[in-house]
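Please annotate this fold before class:
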Amino acid sequence: MWPATASTTRYRTPESAAQGFATDYLHMTNPVVNGFQQGDARSGEVPVQPSATGPVTTVLVRQLGSDNSWWVLGAGTASINLSAPVWNATISSPVTLTGTSVAYEGTVQSQVRQDDTTRPLGEGYVTGGSTAIGPFRGSLAFTKPTTKYGAVVLYTTSAENGAVLSASVIRVAFG
């Protein structure tokens, strides 16, 4: 999912992959990147926050390729739980998004992106809980992708300045 396979950008550490993903893919401003938490021998998680006291987005990383560089496979946050589509599902437009969330005024931004770009094919929002986790269900239309794979991106923003606070990102196939 990240970095773009068409680019020459490769990451030597899991923290640098999470940093690049948070700033360049999620568009967080000056994220706080915490320490790598090892999973198996080639993967793990890196917690990222918009500030030292902000919500945590857990970035899933794995070493891939002959150069053993670090890649981001997805991300999750406690405030956004996507139940459908599921990881690696094949989607078409419009895609139905269901799950639970909590966000300012209940609003969670949603996007469908194709691989190798951060520009969305379609964007909108779903509405979940505003003071406690609540269910959401919404439909998101998107233009025809030119790649086989992409991502569904759900994220919350600050009411104060519009900055990205937290995100859940899953890999999908287009069909």
About this structure: Residues 14-25 form the longest helix (12 residues). The helical segments are 14-25. The mean pLDDT is 96. The CA atoms of residues 87 and 170 lie 6 Å apart.
